[in-house]
Amino acid sequence: MATQHSNTHDAFTPSDFGKLLNTALQSESTALQVSTVVKTDKVSITFPIWDEDPAVNWLTELGTITATDGDTDGVTVTPSKVGGITRLSNELAEDSSPEVAELAVRGLVNQISHAVDTAFVGDTTTNGPSGLLSISSTAVDTGAAIANTDPFVEAVFKAKGVGAKLTHWLMAPSTAETLAKIKKASGSNESLISFDARGELSVLGLPVLTHPDVDAATFFWGIPQDRVVTVLRKDAEVSRSKDSGFYNDALDVRAITRVGVGFLHEAAVIRGYNAA
Predict the structure, then answer these.
(1) Between the CA atoms of 119, 125, 129 and 134, what dihedral angle is there, to the nearest 10 degrees?
(2) Which residues, 6+ apart, have CB-to-CB distance to 169 below 8 Å?
(3) Please, what is the angle between helix 14-28 and helix 99-121, to 10°?
């Protein structure tokens, strides 16, 4: 016979919560989708960067090769803690169906995901990571409005100019809607921008992701996934406590994860905005 942990349904155990939170966070967070996700169990992680190759020489027969060093650098990412608590009545926790656990976790996941993404598209965040607006990205001047794909073409080749390859576009939903409505020609009903097999918007073959907190001055970000990292420290921690809700006859569920963001090649990130 299986042993019960307590009178609370097994779905409320920390391991079940943690697995669901990790899976949901990676599927919900825009930042995690456009970046390379790295896990660590350390306080911080350093990414070595080979900045410049050593020089080579054209030589005469028996000529001496001059030794040179490459240029190296590194980016250290220290994950910051983000979390929340939701309170359930003991009647709800003990008498309802197991789906209540998923609903409780979903609410925490939504908030954690939103906090991570808001920091990612922002400048600096108190007690959190610095985002896209904090880096020395490469600019593409879009003018006051986007009427065609020329700014995106320019962004692709500016990334190539620094040895990078864009993999995603990130923009506000309103910008994506405007792009989706651009027609191939005046009077045409045919969209200029294509949609993939799942009905998702893509530009120049690259998927478009949206987040409402992309700043109003930015039309789009061009992201090279291999040059941007999101660091998760250990697995998400989820715990439950009846002690904190003693006076309310309640069960508190707390979710905490630790997330850091690192930009390994700032010039490879392209920002499209009106530079006028």
Answers:
(1) 80
(2) 152, 203, 206, 207, 208, 209, 220, 221, 222, 223
(3) 40
More confident residue, 233 or 5: 233
Mean pLDDT on 137-142:
96
Place of tokens 């959190």: 128
The end-to-end CA distance of the chain, in Å, is 72
Q: What is the pLDDT of residues 203-243, one digit of tens each?
A: 998 999 999 999 999 999 999 999 999 999 877 776 666 66
- In one letter, which amino acid is 51? D
- Ranges of each domain in the chain: 10-50+73-273
Q: Closest by alpha carbon to 261, among 76, 1, 69, 86? A: 76
Distance CA 184, CA 182 (A): 7
For the record, the structure tokens of 27 come out as 């599927």
The structure's pTM equals 0.79
Pick the CATH number of 10-50+73-273 from 3.30.420.40, 3.40.120.10, 3.30.2400.10, 3.40.50.2300: 3.30.2400.10
Tokens 């359930």 — which residue?
Answer: 88
CA distance readout (Å), 116 to 84, 110, 228, 230, 238: 13, 10, 14, 10, 17
Question: Which of 259, 242, 258 is closest to 250 using CA atoms?
Answer: 242
